[in-house]
Specification:
Layout (H helix, E strand, L loop, with lengths): L1 E3 L2 H13 L4 E6 L5 H13 L2 E6 L19 H10 L4 E3 L3 H4 L18 H4 L3 H16 L3 E5 L3 H13 L5 E5 L19 H6 L1 H15 L5 H13 L4 E10 L13 E9 L2 E8 L1
Parallel strand pairs: 1-4, 2-3, 2-5, 3-4, 5-6
Antiparallel strand pairs: 7-8, 8-9
The site of adenosine monophosphate has 17 residues, from helix 2 and strand 5.
Length: 279
Amino acid sequence: MQIAKTIKEVRTQVKTWKSEGLTVGLVPTMGYLHEGHGSLITRARKENDRVVVSVFVNPMQFGPGEDLESYPRDLEKDSAYCESLGADLIFHPEPEEMYTAGFCSYVDMSVLTEELCGLSRPVHFRGVCTVVNKLFNIVQPNRAYFGQKDAQQLAVIRRMVEDLNMDLEIVGCPIVREEDGLAKSSRNTYLSDEERAAALVLSKAVKLGEELVKAGERDAKKIVSEMSALIQKEPLARIDYVKAVDGLTMQQIDTVKSPMLVALAVFIGKTRLIDNFAV
Ligand code: AMP
């Protein structure tokens, strides 16, 4: 497995693969990999001749006061994990490689990015769309893999690919959870033991919401308010949002429909965690 730090190295390798008629799958990540990322890499391994994993903590998608500096990093462990899953190349650029002096071009989106996480993280999706676009241009993948864990991000990227006529397939992969239900996340490492226990309230709320839908509840506002009430019982939890939205446009809805996304962001102490379920 190759580790490339420059765009030139990636392009040279991909050019060779493409000239041999091989297909390429891309898994964009910020590193500190866990089994959630692993499920994307494994899926990419099954569906493509070559697999590229990008490991890049993208400064552009962090707002002021967010956790850019403290975001966990461990390239050595990530490399061993990627290799064990059969990845062919890790792209691990420095920020200066991705954003050269004078950088001033962005991919911006309206509507979908103005709800949910976009409200509390106003620069986040501009950073995501811009870096994902750059990664697509650098790696030229046939397929790119994203987790349903970041459901709004997945919807935003699908929309961007359609709107801008990008020639690749976007593959969404299910949420991977810890045994007790907590969605796996690199940010779970921030949690103290007490917070780790309190964080279970997110997946419990998701389960409650899913059960209500299964039982035939059609009032999306009722589902959201019951989930919120459950979370509010946890003293260490502070709700950023709990919302039911149209699964494609991310606009709030009052009645259960398909596709629908019920998404939540909750602070456990200082750590902001997200979870969701789709209908
Ligand atoms: P990140 O490194 O957090 O930017 O995540 C990189 C990719 O892995 C994104 O597409 C995430 O949605 C996906 N991912 C992260 N955690 C999980 C999880 N628990 N289950 C499935 N996919 C995940």
